[in-house]
Specification:
Length: 186
């Protein structure tokens, strides 16, 4: 069964608005490697549109050269887009509608190693369903003072165990966690 990994840039105050991040070249290299390991990406409508606008060729000449590998990797990635409002998608994408849990479970059962989910609302829904196998928070040394916030709206706490850590320079740290196994009932 394929593992589902959620990766998100997060500020010290929990803000996950991509415009608040302090990304550097190492963050882009890390994100590129993460996407390259994934068999496919699962994105909500908002994140899909945002990524398409920023990274679908032709990429803006104003973007630094070190962002080009990320652009190439996300452009070539298989994408599943979860939406109840879109009627069609392209950019190597397939539309997913209907029961979210059922659809993602089917994707996880397909052959392969890893699926990746990004965004804000969709990962919160998947966390509620217990479908995320690994969480990676790329923590930036910034207080944004506004939201949206990490996994905002969860109805129950999510207990996690540390699974790894990478220093990405400039005070940015990628921290990986897995859901804590349920304690046996005695």
């Amino acid at each position: 069964m394929r593992r589902l990994r959620y990766t998100i840039n997060v500020m010290l105050d929990g803000c996950v608005d991509h415009r608040a991040s302090t990304g550097n070249e190492a963050v882009h290299r890390h994100a590129t490697a993460t996407l390259a390991r994934a068999d496919a990406l699962i994105l909500g409508r908002v994140t899909y549109r945002m990524m398409e606008e920023a990274w679908r060729p032709p990429v803006s000449e104003a973007m630094p050269d070190w962002t080009r590998p990320f652009a190439s990797t996300i452009d070539g990635a298989k994408k599943y887009v979860v939406s109840s409002t879109l009627e069609q998608v392209d950019w190597n994408a397939e539309l997913i509608s209907g029961d979210l849990g059922e659809a993602v479970r089917r994707l996880k059962e397909l052959p392969g190693d890893e699926l990746y989910v990004g965004g804000v609302a969709l990962p919160t829904a998947l966390a509620e369903l217990g479908l995320i196998d690994e969480y990676e928070f790329v923590v930036h040394p910034r207080v944004a003072g506004r939201g949206p916030y990490l996994l905002e709206g969860l109805t129950t706490p999510l207990d996690l165990e540390p699974a790894g850590r990478d220093d990405l320079g400039d005070g940015i740290v990628a921290m990986r966690y897995v859901p804590r196994a349920a304690l046996p009932i005695e």
